# Entry
Amino acid sequence: MCCREPAARPPVPAHRVLPYKAVSARLRPFTFSQSTPIGLDRVGRQRQKRASNVSSDGGTESTALVDDNGSEEDYSYEDLCHANPRYLQPGGEQLAINELISDGSVVCAEALWDHVTMDDQELGFKAGDVIQVLEASNKDWWWGRNEDKEAWFPASFVRLRVNQEELSENSSSTQGEEQEEDAGKNRHKHSESKHQMRTNVIQEIMNTERVYIKHLKDICEGYIRQCRKHTGMFTVAQLATIFGNIEDIYKFQRKFLKDLEKQYNKEEPHLSEIGSCFLQHQEGFAIYSEYCNNHPGACAELSNLMKQGRYRHFFEACRLLQQMIDIAIDGFLLTPVQKICKYPLQLAELLKYTTPEHSDYNNIKAAYEAMKNVACLINERKRRLESIDKIARWQVSIVGWEGLDILDRSSELIHSGELTKVTRHGKSQQRTFFLFDHQLVSCKKDLLRRDVLYYRGRTDMDDVELVDLEDGRDKDWNLSVKNAFKLVSKTTDEVHLFCARKQEDKVRWLQACEDERRRVREDREMGMEISENQKKLAMLNAQKAGHGKSKGYSGCPVAPPHQNLHPLHQRHVTVPTSVPQQQVFALAEPKRKPSLFWHTFNKLTPFKK
# Structure
């Protein structure tokens, strides 16, 4: 993704020295994806009077209605700006925030992602933490308080809370409980407050969805359509790399918004029942997986093109011709990645303000879990795609490989290490084993070059049962064994007996075999599949990379054996704890503990030339 120069430091008080790092404005969770919180509305009333379609409760009427054919009604860019100034004009909320703070009001922001820092001048926090905003004069860095510390934090890592008055209302409710005569009034006020808070969240979901559709439309009609007209500048492959399947996403999101509008209650938004829409379309959201996996390649391709002035001028001309807001093309292409991350956050907030008695409560709860699983599936597919490249390079390094490619059935290395394989006649063979999902591969080390591996066979893990053996004499084979276990075939009389050097090694292998079965089940439940084209491409790239090199291809890191991948229901969508100036917010991989496996595996690689 092409980079901008760091933003200049604004003049700040001497006791508040702005961190050297700065964030490009477009890397924030764009202002068009945030609703103006309660409390900020009163600051911007003069600005909102120009909007002809603002309802009395602070919400906006639909600005992007969808007809029966799935297309939006035409409206001008100026109309959209006047109708939703708080979404489309970067910096508009910033001024309102400072005005509200100067009035003595408390403004809070919710952390979207972890911010890890070793700088004393920066405020560290975790996703979900609430931060009080004390100053927002700079668009990139805000001054805030978290617990007992005040410091700078990146504005791109937070979003303003939809319900700013929640704390004050809760405190007033608590004081009211001390007076018994006012208890009934306080309960009534609290009920009305709940309704208003749910209204705010519903309106945020609706408004951000409408604006998101507008941006998808701008990408498809403003960029892709113009690019296809200039065949001398772009090949079909380049356009596929840059834009991925965003046209499919646009088509899907129009249908989704159409159903969402049908469930939206304009007169009483808090009564809206939108949970069923997410449940109805949950399988359709899987198309985001392809886009998110393609996004790093799109950024790289776009970055190469932007080195040439004619491409920079071309994309800027497309933006101006379409009357799009002042965000570069890479910022627009990031919006689908951000959007799929935001759905679980929005639904979690909506569930918070939906009472169990509400008719939509069960659907909202199910929709929240469904969208978490969608995000989890996208995370997992992204991780698997990165994994299959490493696995393909590993296979190329094995001497004398026979049979189907490892990727035909497997996409993840779960564990590896040395075991002694014992035959019925008592003959032992020292082998190095690699446990993947669905299969266990056996290799033999070269006698002279211990870093070179020879293929010696594989076992179908789907066809065997794991049997733990106690130390002592095995009755079936009449052999004395220690730290041993068996893999017994379910369909034939074939049995494999393995012995580990230490008891802890055996425990790791038993646990790894259980993890392999669990992950296979979860893959089936999640619908986890790697396409044949992606597998073939990974093998082709590995063969090209290994061409002309000695067998035992070096530089092939493999995932650690003990990956703490939580069960499906425990996984959550996160964004990586990146430094603020990082140019792309990507979906995070599950965190893993440090492992010595990388060091051990490097010993198996050949000598470098």
